[in-house]
Request: fold
Amino acid sequence: SPFGDFDRIVSAFFDPDASTSTSSSGSGQRQQRNPRSTIVTRAGFHPRLDLAETDAGYVVHADLPGISKDKVDVSISDDGVLMISGERSSNKEIKDEQRHVVERSYGRFERTVRLPQDADRDNVQAKMADGVLELVVPKLAAPKEAVKKISI
Reply:
């Protein structure tokens, strides 16, 4: 089914233990890898994604609270990999004589999703409001199967 890959991608996002491996580097960066997605986080910042399919296309919502749209990059590679990356640099600190508390996570992030083959990479629409990035990826028109009459 043309949607099988998309279903596996969605499943991988909502069940991060499914076919993933985790590695760490000395920089405090954690990576989870599976064949369909890559998640890179630092200092605990991990934007959440919702992926949905409609009759007309695919919709991706990314929670990016406290991040202005000029700090977010969205791109699609020639092989259909959608990448959302950026940096969250704001934090809230409470200081007194005995403690120092940082309540919000920050750092660079990157999320990638391999789009289904019927995704129209050339007509993606993006908007960001209230800390939520919305990407609408239309589907390509299905090729019509032409029946050719053969005369005998």
Q: What stands out?
A: The radius of gyration is 20 Å.
